[in-house]
Amino acid sequence: MGGGDRCAVGGCNNDRRYPERYIIRSHVSNLQFHSLPKDLRLREIWHKKISQGRKNYKPSDYVKICSNHFEDGERTARCQIPTLFLTPGDFSTQHSPHKRKNRSTSGVTPKQAAKATPDQETDTDRNNNACIFDSLLSSIFITWVRLMRLELSSLIVWPSREVVRQNLPDCFQHFYPKLRCIIDCTEVFIETPSSLDTQAKCWSDYKHNCTVTFLVAITPNGSISYVSPCYGGRASDKFITNDCNFLNLLEPYDQVMADRGFKIKEDLMTVQATLAIPPSTVGSLQMCSSAVKDTSKIANVRIYVEQAIGRLKNYRFLKNEIPITCLPVVDDIVIVSCALCNLLDPLC
């Protein structure tokens, strides 16, 4: 196990290969060796804590920290960051959490106590408590988002062709009687990842920022009927449409409406569906009158998908930059937001 056998904190000699030499502090009931957290931000904090007692410390993915350095005597949801005995000097002067309650009997005179730096200790404790609070808040949020997805995902329904046609608004009846859904892709800003490979996958040339993007399909009356998994901002509309499960939902003779950027006509032909998009211009040539009419007709009805996405972006979490720590549940966040949108009044 190499470098992972010994506690990485400077001055701590606890080593899994020599359990008979363990030094176990009074607040620890079962000495364990804790691996680095998966959360990249927490990892960085761990490395900074270790470097406090090791001048030439080089961060490694294989370091471990023993239970002595956690206030709960082990790594817990409340206590995810090592804060105790982080420098060699701490081992002779710092008390375990249980002993701090009896400082009056610790042998420290009032004069020695006066020489302490309470302001500095308070700042350190405040920073540690802030990290602990953020981690706890993140854990609570992630737990609830996953639970809400399980409970609310049933609100996103792919209706049958008959149901769609029975509820087809008047503005679609004449020109698009076979329309099954309107689709579009939308992007959400995310915090810039530290990994260069991940940055490259998430970089959006359109937004000039790191984003995640996903496909949304709405019924002609404005209900969200399908939402794809999230992809890095680099993914194209065509790639997302083919990679997700959307095409498998279509039936022969269905019509799908999209923006001009969706080059999926041939892909829809594989499932015998058709595509309705605004006519494209050739070079600088002016569109003919019929093309202008087609563009106007599609624009008038495609407004519903823009309004549906606008509703989606009203949720503050999707309106602002999503933190890196929440990326593992970004699909859940999007699905919950779409499901809540379907509880609102129909757009059309």
UniProtKB/TrEMBL annotation:
SUPFAM superfamilies: Glucocorticoid receptor-like (DNA-binding domain)
Gene Ontology terms for molecular function: DNA binding; zinc ion binding
Region described as Disordered: spans on this chain: 90-124
Domain of life (superkingdom): Eukaryota
Domain THAP-type: 1-85
Record keywords, A-Z: DNA-binding, Metal-binding, Zinc, Zinc-finger
Cofactor(s), by name: a divalent metal cation
Chain coiled-coil ranges: none
One Pfam family this sequence matches: DDE_Tnp_4
Protein name: THAP-type domain-containing protein
Organism of this sequence: Pinctada imbricata (Atlantic pearl-oyster)
Native organism taxonomy: Eukaryota, Metazoa, Spiralia, Lophotrochozoa, Mollusca
